[in-house]
Amino acid sequence: MKPFYHFSDEENNQLTHFLSQNAVNPYTHYQEFKLTINELCQSRKVPGFFIDICNSIKHERHHGISDVHVLRNCPRDINVPALDPDNPLEDKYKKKKTFIGEALLETFALLTGTPLLAYGSRHNGDFFTDVVAIRKYSGQLTGFSDSELVYHNDRTAHAVRADFVTLLGLHCPDEELIFTGYIDGKSLIKHLSEEQQTALRQPWYRTEFDVYSRETNSRQISSPDHAILKNHHSIRYLDTLTHVAPGAPEQAKDALIAFMQAMTKADKQRHRIIQGDLLVFANQDGLHNREKIDIQNKENAARRWLLKTYAFRDQKTAEQYQAYWAKGMFGLVED
C-alpha cells in the first residue's frame, strides 16, 4: 500500500519535538495526559504540515475517497524495550519510560476529530493498547497471539465497536514479512445480490467472543443476534466465529455462504507495517486480517509490537454510548 504521506526527517524531528513537550504517563494519569495534549494543540504549537495531513485524511473519509491511510516515518519511541512474552503489559508498565507514540496517536485522534475508545476489561482500561504476542495464546485466534488472523472487525461481538483502528509500528523486525490486509465494505457488497444483502441485514447471525475476551471477562461469551450488514456497507463479522443464529431461516445460511465467497472475490489492499508506520483504517466499514507471508524466525516475529488505539467516528457518535461509560469517564466502556 502506498503511503498517504511520508514524513521527511526534518518533519519527523519537528513533530517529535512537539510531542516531547508532554511529560505525563498516559497509563497512570490518562485524563491529565489527554488534557496536556489538548492544551498543546490549542496553543498552536502543532506543526502546520501535520494539521494539513489530518485535514486531508478527514476530507478523503468524508468524500468516500478512502477509509484506509498510511503515514510513514512517524515519530515513535526510540528506546523500545523488549517485552516479557508471558506478561507484556506489566512489563511495559515497568520498562517504557517515554510516550512519544502515545502522544502521536492522541494528537492524531484530536486533529481528525475521532475521540478515543477503551474497554474497562482490557489492559486495565488503557486507551493505548499493544498488538503483541502473549505466549499463552500462541497459535490461537486472537490479536494477542503469534498466529495469523482471519478477516474480521475488532470487537465484533461487543455492543460498542470502534469506527477506526490506528496502528503504530514500534518494533517490526525487518526480516519477517507480516502484512495487514483490508477489504473495503464497498468492494465486498459489489459481489452480493440485492436478495443476499437483504438477508444479511436481518438479525439472523451471532458472533462468539475470542479467547482473550472470554478470559478477561467471563460474561463475554457470545453476542446477541445481529445483522452482518448495516448502513450502506458497514460490516459486523469475524471469520470462523460469526455463525447463523439458532432459529434463523434457511436463507440466512445461503446469504452467509455468499458473503464468504464475496470476501474471496473482493479487491484487497495489503500493507506491511514497518517501524514508524502509522496505519489507520475504518473498522466497521471493512474487514482486516494479519498474514504471515515469510517468517525467518518465529521467536523474532513474535516480538513484533504495534501500538494501537480505537476511535469513534466523531464526537456525536461517541456521545451515543454515554450509558456505557465507566464512572462517567468519556470513552471508557464498562464491560
CATH architecture, please?
4-Layer Sandwich
Q: SS-based structural class?
A: alpha+beta
Rg computed from alpha carbons, rounded to a whole number of angstroms: 20 Å
CATH top level is Alpha Beta
The 3D shape can be described as: globular
Distance between the termini: 35 Å
* Tally of separate domains: 1
Indicate the mean pLDDT.
95
Largest sheet descriptor: 8 strands, mixed
Q: Give the CATH topology.
A: Double-stranded beta-helix
How many helices does DSSP assign?
11
> What is the H-and-E element order?
EHHHEHHEEEEEHHEHEEEHEEEHEHE
> Strand fraction band?
15-25%
Helix content: 25-40%
Q: What is the name of the CATH superfamily?
A: Clavaminate synthase-like
Q: How many DSSP-defined strands?
A: 16
Low-confidence stretches: none
Task: Describe what this molecule looks like in 3D.
The chain has 335 residues and is an alpha+beta fold. It has one domain (5-316): Double-stranded beta-helix (4-Layer Sandwich). Helices cover 31% and strands 21% of the residues. The chain contains 11 helices and 16 strands. Strands 1, 2, 3, 4, 6, 13, 15 and 16 form an 8-stranded mixed β-sheet that branches. The chain has a 4-stranded antiparallel β-sheet with strand order 5-14-7-12. Helix 2 packs across helix 5 (100-111) and helix 7 crosses helix 9 (250-265). The chain starts with a strand and ends with a strand. The mean pLDDT is 95. This is TauD/TfdA-like domain-containing protein. It comes from Musicola paradisiaca (strain Ech703) (Dickeya paradisiaca).
